[in-house]
Structures are given as C-alpha cells and as structure tokens.
Write a structure and sequence with these properties.
The chain is mainly β. Helices cover 0% and strands 29% of the residues. Strand 1 and strand 2 form a beta hairpin. The protein is globular, with a radius of gyration of 14 Å.
Length: 70
C-alpha cells in the first residue's frame, strides 16, 4: 500500500485522469473530492461488504456537481 500525506487543497493524480483532492479535515474526519471520467465507478468501501446494508443516501448516481476550480 502506498501511503501519502496531503494537506487541504492538495491533490493526488491517478493514471492521468483521476484526481483526489483533500477538501477539508475536521478532527479525525477527512473530506475528499474526486474528479474522474463518468465511466469510472467510485464507491465507498463499506457498500461493497456483504455484511452491511447500505443506507439509501449512500449511493449516488450521475453527476454530483460540476468541478470546482480554486
């Protein structure tokens, strides 16, 4: 596993077309923003585990928001 340290506003780029940005950090909670092609599926890990039932608001399909440029 590759472990990287990032500060708020910094990004990690994966395969030239996926960006992961640290949006905010509050205590032990990190808010991440993802920019990826629409054909790339991004899903929370706990939704893939068969022992947990997903909450109805956990899965979002389609475009969530337009990319914000800071």
């Amino acid at each position: 596993m590759l472990v990287l340290s990032r500060k708020v506003g910094e990004e990690i780029i994966i395969a030239d077309n996926i960006r992961v940005r640290v949006v905010s950090i509050q205590g032990n909670q990190v808010c991440l923003g993802f920019t990826a092609p629409t054909e790339v599926r991004i899903q929370r890990e706990e939704l893939l585990r068969p022992d947990r039932m997903p909450r109805p608001d956990a899965v979002v399909e389609g475009v969530i928001s337009k990319e914000r440029r800071d």
